[in-house]
Amino acid sequence: MNTFTFTGKAKTTLLIIMLAGLALIGLGALTFGGGSHGHDDGHGDSHGQEEQVDAHAVELQHEDGTHDVTVDDAHAATTEEHHEDMHAEETHATEDAGHHAAGHETDAHAEGHDSHGGEHHGVVGATPVTAGKVLWTNLWVIVQMLFWMAMAAMFFLAAHTVGWAGFHIMFQKVTLGIMSILPVAIVLGIIVFIFGHHDIFIWTNPAAMEASELMASKSDFLNFKTFGIMSIAWSLIVVFLLSRWWAKLKAQDEDPDLKHFRTARTLGAITIVLVAVINAFGVWHWLMSIEPNWYSTMYAWYTMASGAAIMFAVTILVLLYLQSQGYLPNLNDSHYHDIGKYLFAISVFWTYVWFSQYMLIWYGNIPEETVYFKERLGNYPIIWYGALIINFFLAFFVLLKRDAKRNKGVLIFACVMIIIGHWFDFFIMVVPYGVAKGGMGLMSVGALLLFVGITGFVILSALSRVKSLDSREHPYYHESLKHHI
Question: Which neighbouring-strand residues pair with 35?
Fold first, then answer.
């Protein structure tokens, strides 16, 4: 069969998955315990004192330029003032109570500094964790997964078109279907940002910006106006590129003339450049600014690698589903083998960037940098190590052998696990800064089911609109048909 029909059974299944996701999100919100704090130090009312000390440390830090001394000075100054007040009291009982309070204050400050790098987390340390914060951060996780998966698909199609590749022609419409998720990701992202921007981005809180001179120095970039203008610009560009690719592939289905392929190569070259630019700038605003006092020069590569791994895994799963329904009968083991090699290679590349980023920050041992890993390793160790184990060790050893990339059962297992692994990865990028503990739960699983349902529904809906599912009118179709390795 050369035209795809999105059957009622498939629609029903995907809708049930999405409804189940929404139900889990609702159940998670209703049963959310609350009462905890972002970066909770376990001393309740000492949060206000900790925040006061950290704010004083910020002022000293920018005067003296030394992180360790300033925090100690701030703490010493606060302790000295507290002791003077205690000695002014005339009763021994009051003095004892004062000493007890000072001890708690000391513990709260020491723990807050040790866990969160002093000024780096002063404001967030006093932010209560609510069901809304857990909800919006987890929804932002799947927004980013959807967007960067689709961007990776756009880059894949553009790069192979520019490179005169032929093996992918038979399934390039699946790549186009994954790209079609972009408008959905953008709309969902707008909704999540409107309702949850304070829960996701600390820089949207004026008090937080004023409390930190470091964050205030970035206010020209971290503000609603700049964020909105740049986000709208990137969104309009990717939607325009998506529309051009749809028009170009549709024209090739109706007319096999080489002129369409030539213009598609031009479009591909433009797409590669724009995707690279959007990848860098988009990551700065949509992901890295979640933790505005921390940055990494490898973050854009890291994010795109994670999105590409999800994209290749989804591509394989969709192709296996289509073949199980009688579509794409000419797709052979060599096609799966090559996509499997891409999945294997991008998993290794992701690990290379992961290790490079971690090793350089570990070796530098600068508190403002290492706190990023400390808060994640300390509060979400299972998810942290789970992402590494799945995305590298499992992907490497499962997909290493040639036969594994041709075995459908092995591919299904590997692809499902890799999607879960990179869900962990995006979770680690987004949630821990605002939700020190308790961010993974029913709402997280519900958000993942939403991702699965949205991905499947949009891709299959897009495929139902194409005239030629296997692109047999394309001038390179026969190269893809006879692809054997």
Answer: none
Structure tokens at 314: 């989804």
Q: Are 478 and 169 in contact (CB under 8 A)?
A: no
Judged by average pLDDT, the poorest of 20-29, 149-158, 291-300 is 291-300
Measured over the CA atoms of residue 145, residue 149, residue 155 and residue 156, the dihedral's sign is positive
Place of tokens 């590997």: 414
Point out which residues pair with 37 in neighbouring strands: 128
Distance CA 53, CA 81 (A): 12
CB 440 within 8 A of CB 383: yes
CA distance 253 to 477: 11
Instruction: State the DSSP string of 272-284.
Output: HHHHHHHHHHHHH
Q: How far apart are CA 164 and CA 271, in angstroms?
A: 15
Which residue type is seen at 478?
H
Q: Are 9 and 445 in contact (CB under 8 A)?
A: no
Taking only the tens place, the pLDDT of each residue in 100-139 is: 334 444 343 334 334 343 344 434 444 678 999 999 999 9
pTM to 2 decimal places: 0.82
Q: Which residues contact 473 (CB under 8 A, 6 or more apart)?
A: 252, 253, 254, 255, 256
Distance of alpha carbon 132 from alpha carbon 137, whole angstroms: 8
Distance between CA atoms of residues 434 and 439, nearest Å = 9
- Whether the per-residue pLDDT at 237 is higher than 70: the answer is yes
The closest of 234, 237, 224 to 289, measured between CA atoms, is 224
Instruction: Tell me the C-alpha distance between 482 and 485, whole Å.
Output: 10
Rounded to an integer, what distance in angstroms lies between the CA atom of residue 128 and that of residue 50? 14
Return d(Cα 339, Cα 315) in angstroms, integer.
8
Buried b or exposed e, range 419-458, using 16+ CB within 10 angstroms: bbbbbbbbbbbbbbbbbbbbbbbbbbbbbbbbbbbbbbbb
316, 415 contact by CB (below 8 A): yes
